[in-house]
Fold this protein.
Amino acid sequence: MGNMTFEKKLQVYEDEEDKMEADMQIIRFLMKGNARLTGKLAAHLYYRIQMENIQFETSAGLDFLDRVIDAMSEEQLRRVRNKIREEQRKISNRERLSKTNKGMVVFIFSTVFIVCMIYLNWNIFLDMKTNYDAYQLQERMAEAERTAKIENLWKEKRAQEDEWKRILDEQTALSQITVQENEQEPQPELLSKFRELYAENPDFRGWLKIDGMKIDYPVMTRAGDNDYYLDKNFEGEKDKNGLLILDYRCDLLSGAQNFIIYGHNMSSGVMFGTLKNYKSKSFCEEHSVIQFDTLYEEAEYKVVGAMLSEVAYADEDVFRYYDAIDISTEESFNAFYQNISENALYMTGETLSYGDSCLILSTCDRYKEDGRFVVIAKKIQK
């Protein structure tokens, strides 16, 4: 300690005394009052010292360890060391197994997390694609409507220019008409704004739109099959959101009295995902007008009421709103009106009379198995 100050020498001395006291406490704890160090006790102490990784820091502690080893026979020392190696190997195996299990848990958790993220993102992607496809169709529809307005203006102009000719030729034309008993009535003219979409897909039947809502989609029909467009888009490609579907029994040309349109109740809000907002009468009052333009006619409908219903079994004698396409007889109309009144969540007070045409919007509702939520609106006569 050549150049040490007195204070440093004193500190070193105190540290050594502390270490000595610590080693003596360990020795007293291990001996537990045993005055004599037998071979059996020595073997037990040596096992504890090694397994508990007890470290002596002073000569007194190291001397005690030497005495423990000397008190054992070679056979005892060999057995104890073998036992220590076996225990250490077991501990090592447990630690390795624990690390492996932790690794497996982390791997499984990571895999499940990645799969969940892929699934969620894939569904988000599909919904985004549906929205993008619908947006493109909406833009095409808007452009077609603008074109149709221009065409109508030109038609009006030509009509005015040809008015004089029509007046001069009217009597001559009427005198030449011969009515044939078996003559068929001409088909109504396809609305010009729908020509392009109809040419692209002949299943196209019209467009449903509700101002202030997400509902702004084409309406499709596949002959004899109400399920075809449940999982397909306008191009016929797979799409879990599907499209809006006009019941194939609603023939536009025959002048079906009621139109029934089905759509998925998607949690993302696409298709009829927002139709459930009509469960609130106050919401209905703010969105009471629905526009449904068929291939041949532009029309608006006023909401009459909303109701909960269900798909009935074949042998059940119950009211089926989805079969109420033809209510041309007074009896069938009264049955229709009575049933929607009795099952309605609310009625708006809008008068529904015999002879009115109705628009029925239907989507799934989980209030019960095979449950349906239905909005009924009547055609506004212009």
